[in-house]
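Consortium newsletter contribution from the modelling node. Members have asked for a concrete example of what our holo predictions look like. Here is one, prepared for the zinc ion complex that several groups have been discussing at recent meetings.
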Amino acid sequence: MIVSSSLQFKTVVGEMVDLTDRVRKAVEKSRVRNGTVVVFVPGATGAVTTIEFEPGLVRDMGEALERLAPRDLDYSHNLRWGDGNGHSHVRAAFLGPSLTVPIVEGALTLGTWQQIVFLELDNRPRDRRVVLQVMGE
Ligand code: ZN
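And here is the predicted structure:
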């Protein structure tokens, strides 16, 4: 069985959004007991990963991304397109657009302190859609 759905939400610059409960609900609704769920963002300036979702790490992650691809450097992308978000694309490419989580006996196999998060890496607020695809039986 394959059940696709999507989550929609608005973001602000630099926001980290905890999707764990919404993914869990989609898995429950699918009635898949054993399989996987794919969480995917269509878009090249957002990312999906897991982290312990607490304010310290939200801040640490923002600072780490600033060190990885600083906002104020020159990016060829900005010269070409003028949208000023070269750093956003580089950060998104490093983190990746998707995550796969195994489902066992109807439950996500996440660790206790492991949440599924979306990161807004663009340089402006966005309307985001995240695709969920539950596969299994
Ligand atoms: Zn761009």
